[in-house]
């Protein structure tokens, strides 16, 4: 059974674009971009960095912790992304960005992030509530691109349309078969550095939907260290290679050669190819496939993919021990 957010995925993308188009943005000028957020919301920064890394003169800094790097200043456009709006790391980054006079835009379904943004008269993109944060990625990712388009960074219009269409074209049968083959093995996700954020997103989806830890790394770096680990303990591992028809000859030959070497040392090698021609459509199709594959594994092994008991327990315990958000609020207002 396909989870609801995947049946509605292209609709969610369209809705996300509609929400962002209605936002009245201030006239911000900036020379770098930072995207703050962790977990499901944090994937958005990774995906945006993949999209823009080789295609924009502007640096995208991905912040997945409490503190902002030293070079984030008043000339930085800072997106604070938290689905719940109550995540302490993101709220701390928000408070620090405010202190440094950064240009801030928040993306959230509510919580303190919406409340604080409104109180401080800062723009907030309010997205629908009721999803698991990881399932709401279209609502958080696409509006950021619309904002960047509005600020003149790049025109994403055609690529956004392709991304809406692309998820309808994904073949699910190969993913069902892959889920069956790897459902009980250890997993490693590897792909080109071009898709480092997508690789991490796959890893996160395996963690949160299928409830397993996975190895992940990118070519070419993994050829210089990670592969050596298989000399001793690869026999239980299924390797998933994220491929791309435009990956370039060097990466292509590296991946093919690594595949040959892997054959003698690991359980099995599998490939996933993105759909679409633009980088954005490829990223969106990968996001869809990561969700589908890992939800399928959860279904096959009979676990509830939605529960994140460890994350929830940790948040409660940290709140009791640190009360970070309460302290931040006191300092902000
Ligand atoms: O999927 C999850 O529940 C987590 O990874 C959350 O996204 C993470 O804890 C951060 O919370 P939020 O997305 O509400 O900021």
Please tell me about this protein's structure:
- The longest helix has 23 residues, at 279-301.
- The protein contains 14 helices and nine strands.
- It has 333 residues and is an alpha/beta fold.
- The termini are far apart.
- It has helices at 4-7, 9-21, 39-52, 88-99, 111-119, 137-150, 157-166, 173-182, 196-209, 230-233, 249-263, 279-301, 309-322, 324-332, and strands at 32-36, 60-63, 76-82, 103-108, 124-126, 186-192, 215-219, 237-242, 268-272.
- The structure holds 5-phosphoarabinonic acid (PA5).
- The site of 5-phosphoarabinonic acid has 15 residues, from helix 3.
Question: What keywords describe this structure?
Answer:
alpha/beta; 5-stranded parallel beta sheet; 4-stranded parallel beta sheet; 14 helices; 9 strands; 50% helix; globular
Low-confidence stretches: none
Mean model confidence by pLDDT: 96
Shape: globular
Query: Which ions and ligands are bound to the chains?
Result: 5-phosphoarabinonic acid
Number of helices, where a helix is a run of at least 4 consecutive DSSP H or I residues = 14
Order of helices and strands: HHEHEEHEHEHHHEHEHEHEHHH
- State Rg: 20 Å
Fraction of helical residues: 40-55%
Count of extended strands: 9
Strand content: 5-15%
Topology:
Elements: H1 4-7, H2 9-21, E1 32-36, H3 39-52, E2 60-63, E3 76-82, H4 88-99, E4 103-108, H5 111-119, E5 124-126, H6 137-150, H7 157-166, H8 173-182, E6 186-192, H9 196-209, E7 215-219, H10 230-233, E8 237-242, H11 249-263, E9 268-272, H12 279-301, H13 309-322, H14 324-332
Parallel strand pairs: 1-2, 1-3, 3-4, 4-5, 6-7, 6-8, 8-9
Helix pairs in contact: 2-6, 2-7, 3-6, 3-9, 4-14, 7-12, 8-12, 9-12
Bound molecules: 5-phosphoarabinonic acid.
